[in-house]
Amino acid sequence: MTYNQQRSDKVSAPHAGHHKTEEHFREQHLMLDPMPRGQMNDMVMDSMHTTSWKFWVVFAILSAIVAWGLFYSWGKMILEGLGIAGVNRPAYWGIFLVNTVFWIGISHAGTFISAILRVFKAEFRRPFTRAAELMTTFGLIQAGFSIFMHMGRVWLSYWLFPYPNERGLWPNFHSPLSWDLLAITTYLLSSTMYLFLPLIPDLAMARDRSTGWRKTFYKVLALGFRGTEGEWVHLRNAMNIFAFAIIPVMFSVHTIVSWDFAAATRPGWSSTIFGPYFVVGALHSGMGAVVMVLAIVRGTMKNMKYFIRPEHFEAIGKLMLIISMAWAYFFFNDYLVQWYGGDKWTKQLLHYHEAGPLGWMWFLMLIVNIAIPWAVLWNKKWRSTPWITFTVGLLINVGMWLERYIIIPISLSINRMPFTWRLYQPGIEIPLGIGTLAFFILLYMAASRLIPLVPVWEVQEGQMAHSLKKFGRETVVTVSELE
Amino acid sequence: MMNKSNIPEVGANFAEGEQGKWGMVIDRDLCTGCQACVAACSMENNVAFVGEEDSGYGRSMHWIRIERFWEGEYPEVKMTSQQPVLCQQCGHAPCEPVCPPFAAVHSQAEQLNLQVYNRCVGTRYCANNCPYQVRVFNWRDYTDDRLDPALVTLKNQYNPDVTVRRRGVMEKCTFCIQRIHKAQDKAKSEGREVADGEFTTACAQACPANAITFGRVDNPESLVSQLAGQNRGSKLLEELGTLPQVTYLNGG
Questions:
Q1: Predicted pLDDT at A386
Q2: What is the CATH number of the domain that holds A233?
């Protein structure tokens, strides 16, 4: 039997109950549920303008937490010294560095979703690329706060930047921290530009539909975009360049963050697998954070149930499952190679991770990072349910925070001089950490009122490219290439 | 204009098998664990007192510490040995390359590992990367007499040759570099070389059991070279390749 015969057999003998109706497709897929452009624009503008009293209550509470947790506590620490934090010898690095790595990890998924999925033309990305990219920029701001908090004399932090000065002194380019600073700065600048480029047409849309101070605000930001063909060509070229260029930058940044640890001489840190292990770990926590943001945006913002649908949670859920498997592989690899290496201090440390006073963290990390995602996300129905995926994402973020806690203060408690072994107890790190979290949410809330959280033009473009055609009784999805 | 000599080198300019310049020998069998070296070092180098609470939480700032080793569980404890641990002045120091603003540097003249206090921004990477855990951090302003009235009088015994450090900077043993410089200046003004045993570090000077000896390791005639060459010496964590300049003697 030839291939053609096989196909024609299948076509000529369809199963009666398997026809999907047009309504089914419309309900399931945003791309197949087109809406007049003016109406969609109004929906997005409406979601920005509709602000209930609940929003302002949450906004005020978060502002108070930021004022207390971030600015008051940090100011107090700058005046009194790091003594009010929990860092000691041998745990010279504590929750500050845990939070830095955590926030950089969170910021990863934004660019990952946006750039990788844009390059591969994954259609499900369209309504939420902006929400993910915002996470990158806002997460990196928190990472910046965390790393500067950690410094003993933060008012001299400009010495870490390579600026020309009369002493002829450059920063030490041998130091992984110098690489880190350059990598994070590059990432912050490039991801902010990458956030801004696809935003321009939406800002122009908002400019044409608003009055008063908002009009001025969007007018400045939209850079006079009118939607001519030449402008679109330039915009597409720039977005293409950034989407491709930012992918290696994203991989390099977290690899370099891992080198802060991997390049050191400490047991448990000097592991060659740390580069990819950290990248996968960052994606793991970042995907969890994206899903949390989407669930909250869908649940709390007006008109968002149209844009963010179960199909998106389903698609991200699949990615989360795959990344969880990859993380499990790298975790096992890291553990196995370190254990097999047989260094007595490393063995002691691995034993301390599991059986030490904070061993529960190690087990909890494995449960929430591996067991729960695997147990839940395989099921299409479950992973399509927003609150279930939200909970899994939250647990993954707890687990990834614990992973960094195990790598930094717990691993630092054990070293090659047993006389100095000592446990770490967090002090003012806790309000400061809560402050960064509140500031992240606060920035997000402010952004949701100021810029269109859904890339309207991208959704419209996708809807124009997709259409439903009838072939006999069969309804078929067709796609045309617009770009 | 920048020229190459302005860029600090990382690491010493000697390789494994060669010797540094200044070195120390510590005899574990002679050490009684009396802590006189710790007290003398604190006096000489203006090391801050951190108070009971911080000290109990691992924030004591002694540049030299006595590590005690024991067998058994309390109350059936048998003290086995003790060793003073100070900065090993590594030839290939792990703390140096990781410091972003070049505060942990290798001095080419003295072949010592130095900390430039006013260049330190307090990332504490050096301390994490030090396998001997001998770097100490100024967690608070331990030297500010407005915060602790007891310091008003205590300040009078500061050594004027040594900087008083403020909060947020890392510090560590310097092999009493102020004494090295003083002896070198004196010898230079008299037109001679520094003689072996002409001066010593504060810890070695204070040791009642003579367990600590300091001197030139690149001079085979010096006492410290002869003690180190007795085939009963070992170095701490030698397998890491840090080329430490302190030799510990065992079983004499």
A1: 93
A2: 1.20.1630.10
Report which DSSP code applies to B114.
Answer: E
Contacts of B123 in chain A (CB under 8 A): 150-152, 177
ipTM reported for the complex, 2 dp: 0.90
From the list A157, A170, A260, which residue is nearest B121 (CB)? A157
Q: Say if residue B7's pLDDT is above 60.
A: no
Q: Which domain holds residue A309?
A: 35-163+170-479
pLDDT (tens digit per residue) in B52-72: 999 999 999 999 999 998 888
Partnered with residue B83 across adjacent β-strands are B67
Q: How many domains does chain A have?
A: 1
CA diameter of chain A: 83
Q: Are strands B246-249 and B22-27 parallel, antiparallel or unpaired?
A: parallel
Look up residue A330 and give its amino acid.
F
Q: How confident is the model at residue A471 (pLDDT cuts 50, 70, 90)?
A: confident
How far is A360 from B242, CA to CA, in rounded Å?
A: 36
Residue B10 and residue A170: Cβ atoms within 8 Å? no
Q: Is A268 inside any structural domain?
A: yes
| Lowest mean per-residue pLDDT among A84-93, A111-120, B196-205 | A111-120
Q: How far apart are the first and last CA of chain A?
A: 39
**Model confidence pLDDT, tens digit, residues A390-413:** 999 999 999 999 999 999 999 999
User: Cβ contact (<8 Å) for B10 and A417?
Assistant: no
Give the pLDDT band (50/70/90) at residue A12.
very low
Phi and psi at residue B233, to the nearest 5° = -100, 150
Domain-located, residue A24: no
Question: Token digits for A310?
Answer: 């179960």
A225 belongs to a structural domain? yes
Do you find a cis peptide bond into A90, omega within 30 degrees of 0? yes
Interface contact flag, B2 A151, Cβ < 8 Å: no
The string of pLDDT tens digits covering residues A213-225 is 999 999 999 999 9
Residues facing A454 on adjacent strands: none
The amino acid at B5: S
Which residue is associated with the tokens 């060659």?
A: A272
- Whether cis (ω within 30° of 0) applies to the bond prior to B75 is yes
Residue A13 is assigned to a structural domain of this protein: no
CATH of B14-249, one of 3.40.50.1980, 3.40.50.800, 3.55.10.10, 3.30.70.20: 3.30.70.20
Q: Do B58 and A88 touch (CB under 8 A)?
A: yes
Once rounded to an integer, what is the mean pLDDT over residues A228-238?
Answer: 93
Residue B12: pLDDT over 60: no
Q: Which of B97, B124, B132 sits opposite A92 (nearest CB)?
A: B124
For every residue of A65-115, DSSP letters joined together read HIIIIIIIHHHHHHHH-GGGSS--SS--S-HHHHHHHHHHHHHHHHHIIII
Residues of A in contact with B120 (CB under 8 A): 152-153
Q: What is the pLDDT of residues B132-164, one digit of tens each?
A: 999 999 999 988 888 778 788 888 889 999 999
Judge: B137–A89 Cβ closer than 8 Å, yes or no.
Answer: yes
Q: Identify the H or E element spanning B85.
A: strand B78-85
Total residue count of chain B as it appears in this document? 252
Chain A residues with CB-CB distance to B10 below 8 A = 172, 174
